Amino acid sequence: MPLLAQLLLYALVPSLAIFTGGVIASYKPLSPKNQSLVQHIAAGVVFAALVGEVLPDLTSSHPNPLLIVAGFAAGVILMLGMRSIIESKVKSKQEAVKNPLNLILIVGIDILIDGFLIGIGLALGEINGTLIAVALGIEILFLGMATGAEMHEGGVPRKQIFATLGALVVPPIVGVLAGGLIFSGVSHDVVVVVLAFAAAALLFLVTEELLVEAHASAETPFATAMFFAGFLILYILELIF
């Protein structure tokens, strides 16, 4: 399959995930307890993609450590920079609900980067891209559910919720296409930098976003177990495929 067609096909995963999750939650929002459960699962799945796909590929390429440092630093700086930009615009999603443009900004940046990582995975290998797309697709589905629930609870009309979700379909498509087309056929050194960048971004997503939000509600042993369940499920899939 031509690369562009492949990228467009995989771009449907995060796009459908954000829209579907938001629509479902606009009718039946998740309780805080259930939100914590699914965020733990999503964190485990993304962490499995990092440990099972990105890091082994990075290690097996016998990389120059300086390239790893450069890529990892770039990933951390970008994620912190995006957070700083978002926080300068809005203090929270609850505040952003009052302004659809702010909500599109705060969620759109997240899923743009997620799409970019999926595109990178596809550019570096179809199996990598598939598993990363599955992991981030699950994370984006639950992000969509959280976004739809917050808009519903904020009294936003359903028509406006659907319009906002429709706008959020675009960023992951842009991200997948950009990541895939930019990094297709690059040199070994660039691959090392890109993999290190992806590792940092995924690690940030797990530790500074998903788990932080998951721990905002009361922590339970079952919720914690869901992190390991999510990790194990995707890791087994990696071994099978």
Shape: globular
Number of strands: 0
Query: What Rg is obtained from the alpha carbons, in whole angstroms?
Result: 17 Å
State the helical fraction: over 70%
Low-confidence stretches: none
The major pleated sheet works out as: none
Distance between the termini: 19 Å
Q: pLDDT average, as an integer?
A: 90
Q: What proportion of the residues form beta strands (DSSP E)? A: under 5%
Count of domains:
1
In oligomeric terms, what are we looking at? Answer: single chain
Q: List the secondary-structure elements in sequence, H or E.
A: HHHHHHHHHH
Helix-and-strand structural type: mainly alpha
Question: What does it look like?
Answer:
- 86% of the residues lie in helices and 0% in strands.
- It is mostly helical.
- The chain has one domain.
- Helix 1 (3-27) packs antiparallel against helix 5 (100-124), helix 2 (32-60) runs antiparallel to helix 9 and helix 5 crosses helix 9.
- The model has no long low-confidence stretch (mean pLDDT 90).
Offer a concise description of the structure:
With 241 residues, this protein is an all-alpha fold. Helices cover 86% and strands 0% of the residues.
Provide keyphrases for this structure.
single chain, 241 residues, mainly alpha, 10 helices
List the helices and strands and how they pair.
Layout: H1 3-27, H2 32-60, H3 65-89, H4 93-96, H5 100-124, H6 126-153, H7 158-168, H8 170-182, H9 188-214, H10 221-240
